[in-house]
Amino acid sequence: xxxxxxxxxxxxxxxxxxxxxxxxxxxxxxxxxxxxxxxxxxxxxxxxxxxxxxxxxxxxxxxxxxxxxxxxxxxxxxxxxxxxxxxxxxxxxxxxxxxxxxxxxxxxxxxxxxxxxxxxxxxxxxxxxxxxxxxxxxxxxxxxxxxxxxxxxxxxxxxxxxxxxxxxxxxxxxxxxxxxxxxxxxxxxxxxxxxxxxxxxxxxxxxxxxxxxxxxxxxxxxxxxxxxxxxxxxxxxxxxxxxxxxxxxxxxxxxxxxxxxxxxxxxxxxxxxxxxxxxxxxxxxxxxxxxxxxxxxxxxxxxxxxxxxxxxxxxxxxxxxxxxxxxxxxxxxxxxxxxxxxxxxxxxxxxxxxxxxxxxxxxxxxxxxxxxxxxxxxxxxxxxxxxxxxxxxxxxxxxxxxxxxxxxxxxxxxxxxxx
Length: 419
What we know:
It is built from twelve helices and ten strands. 47% of the residues lie in helices and 18% in strands.
């Protein structure tokens, strides 16, 4: 047997294999013996079927199974000896087996390239300070009040800020009559709709009326198919409801988990600041990663790209089955997939090079955030993460976050305190 391994490229290894027919004899006989012990044929007791009959009926299948097992064993051993960790499936090419001469074939294995990221320690990219204005806090408080508001039926004409409830009777878009959906009812908060013309046509409407509304969809409408098109709606109004904001009293503060309005404002300010800090940090990290990708070019195995795209499509489709990407999806999604894979490799390199680890304090802090967000007991959540094994992936996630922080000048607490 001969095996020759070549480094075809940074992400490809070619393994040329030649196996003498002689090397199949012993494993073939072992497999044949096993078949004789297990096969049952009419007229023969189990284990008593003549060898010639087994060979006549199952010989070719036994030989093929033997070839497959020998090849798998050889490849497993040779890849391990060469320290080759394939990405995706091995690709077999030029397979030859005439049952007389040596079996020969070529295997192509994709691998992750060895990378050496230079210049990551001082990119000159920092996370800017964030400022939360009084207007930001007020807007968030208004949003919170709206979220806790209730709407009540009123016997008057609809005005901006009211909720109008009704049923679609007829819909015509650009002169084409559309089929009314089975769920005909609509609820429109006047002044907040994506179609201002529709809202405007509902102003002044009263319960029990039938109205015809004509308008043009805005050029920036969220649904591209409707942008700039004319619309004619015939609707019946079933209710006009006034939005009543919550009373800022002790009961309301208790419902949202604060003592008073001052604490609510403080929580909002801290939350807005955290969100804004995370946003500007994400921007800074992406800038740093893009800079390193440009300065440190390296290849990405095609199998990694396909794997990530499949995962992305499966997640978006919310399906349990694997989604096979089309050629168009591959062409569209490949550039971003390649960048994400490179980002992952870069952060992994930095984390390993700088010996970054997730401390227990970091793990507990993240678990505490999750416990507060989902309103569950911290110790119970911690125990669940440990029992399910998710604590390992959480530590890895935090390690990568530490690497991202390192790129934008945020050093581990221990390092900062030693300066």
